[in-house]
Amino acid sequence: QVQLVESGGGLVQAGGSLTLSCAVSGLTFRRYAVGWFRQAPGKEREFVAVISGSGGSTYYADSKKGRFTISRDNTKNTVYLRMNSLKPEDTAAYYCAADSFYGRVRESDYNYWGQGTQVTVSS
To answer: SS3 for the chain, per residue?
Structure first.
């Protein structure tokens, strides 16, 4: 059974930082790209970033470049999303998802999803 479990969300003040984690089990981790998406209240889910199975390649949504960093530790089957200089508009539920191909940005391309972790940024 494939499981993706996000953690690390919470309440943070604007300008602060958070690191989200996505622990993956039930699949050959290094063979899967893992992406982060987010969904704010009343909005569609949007792509944030993706990392290849080896960790050697990353791709970000334009608006996230420079503030967000995706990384992975294949010894721990975990992907991370470091978020700096957080803004109130970053408030959303953040989801990780696994894809057998790297570089895709549509949520429909991703095979497996976590349940999400809430990030709230106060002004």
So the answer is: CCEEEEECCEEEECCCCEEEEEEEECCCHHHCEEEEEEECCCCCCEEEEEECCCCCCEEECHHHCCCEEEEEECCCCEEEEEECCCCHHHCEEEEEEEECCCCCCCHHHCCEECCCEEEEEEC
Q: Which of 108, 105, 83 is nearest to 94 (CA)?
A: 83
* Backbone dihedral region for residue 11 (phi beyond 0: left; psi -120 to 50: alpha; all else: beta): beta
Residue 94: predicted pLDDT: 98
Asked if residues 6 and 22 have their Cβ atoms less than 8 Å apart, the reply is yes
pLDDT > 90? residue 97: yes
